[in-house]
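pipeline stage [seq->struct] | target=Multidrug export protein MepA | organism=Clostridium amylolyticum | residues=446
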Amino acid sequence: MDRHNRLGEEKISSLLFQFSMPAIVGMLVNALYNIVDRIYIGNIKDIGKLAITGVGMTLPITTIIMAFGMLVGIGTSATISIRLGQHKKEEAEKILGNAFVLLVIISITLSILGIIFQDKILSSFGASPNTLVYAKEYMTVIFYGTIFSMVSFGLNHSIRADGNPKMAMMTMLIGAILNTILDPIFIFVFNMGVKGAAIATVISQVATTIWILRYFTGPDSMLKLKKENFKLNKKLILSIFTIGVSPFSMQIAASVVQIIMNKSLTSYGNDYAVGAMTIIMSISMIFLMPIFGINQGSQPIIGFNYGAKKYHRVKETVKYAIVAATVFVIIGFLVIEIFPAQAIGLFNRDAEILEVGVNGIRIYLSMLPVIGFQIISSNYFQSIGKAKVSMFLSMLRQVILLIPLLLILPKIYGLNGIWLAGPISDFTSALITAILFFNDIKKINK
C-alpha cells in the first residue's frame, strides 16, 4: 500500500502511532538540550540557584535566535517540498544553497550584535547584578556558537523535506546525547560552571552541523549543497521568508512574553522567582513536547482525509490525538501536584527555590489537563487549511491573553498574580478553542 492509500485507508490508531512516535522522540530529544543544561547548572555547588536564574534571563535571547532559525529553516523546508512536488529539483537545490548562506549571514550578524550589546540587553531583560555575571558567562559562549546553532537547527528541517525524517531525528539524537555526556564533564570535572554548560552545548551543535553538512554533500541525500547555489536570489529569499514569517512571529512573541515575565518576577518576587519559573517551564516542556509530536503526526492524516472528504476519518484522527495528548498532560498534572518538591528538586534543592517553586508550579500548571485539547484543536485548523484561525488560537494562550494577565494580575495579587496568569490563560483559551472547534465539527457533520 503506497503512502497516499495508507493515509486514506489504514487504521487511524495505527497511522497516528506510526507518524507521531518519531516526532515525539524528536521533540523530546530537542527539549533535552535545554533541560539537561538547566539540571546540571542548577546543581552547581554554592551558586546553582543564582546560576539557573542567570540562565533563565537568557531565554528570550535564545528564543530570538531560534526564531531566525525557524524563519529560514521552516520556510526553506516547506518551499523545497513544494518544488520537489513540482519536479523542480534544481530550484530546490538553489533554495537549499540560499538557505545555508542566509543562516550563516544572519547568525554572524546576531553574534556580533549580541557580543557587543549583551550587557545592555540582559539588564533590560531583567537581569540583576547578582545574576548578570552568570547570564553573561553563558551567553558569551552561546553567541560565539550561534552559527552552528542556526545552521544545524535551520537545515535539519530540510532533511525532512529531502524525504528522510529518520535522519532528521538521528541528528537531534546525536546532539542531545553528546550534550548530556559533555555537560557534567565541562561543568564539574573541568570545574567550568555555567560556561562549561554553554561550551558543551556549542560542541554538540558543531557535531550536528558537521553531520548535516556531510549529509547534504554525501551520497545519502537527494538534494545536494553546491557552491554554485550560494549566490543569493531575491525571489527565492522572498519565498522562504513568506512561509517562515509565521513561526518566526510566534517565537518573537514568545520572547516578548519571557521578557515581561522575567521583569514581573523580579519586580514582585526576587531572583529566585525567576529561577523557579525557569525550572517550571523546563518541567512543562517534558509533558508538552509529546503533544507537539502528536500534532506533527496527525497533521498529514487530517489534511489528506479532509482533502479526500473522508470526514469520518478526520474526526477519528482528531479524537485519538486529543485523547493521547490529554493522557500525557494528565500524567504531567498528577506528577506536578503530587510530587512538586521532587520535580523542582531535580533542578535545584535550595530552600528558597523550593519554597517559591512548589507554590508556583502547582498554581501555574494547574490547568495542564486542558492544554492538550487546546493545542491539538488549534493544529486541526492548520491541518485543514484554516491557518489564520490556527495562528489566532496558538497566539491566544501564550500571547493575546497571557501578556495582559501578566501586566494586570501582579498589581493585585503580587507574585501569586504571575502564577495565576498561566491557568487563567490556559482555561480561557481552551474554552474559546472549544467553541470554534465544535462549530467547525458541526459543519463537517452537515
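stage status: PASS
auto-comment: The two ends are 31 Å apart (CA to CA). The chain has two domains: 1-29+269-446, 43-267.
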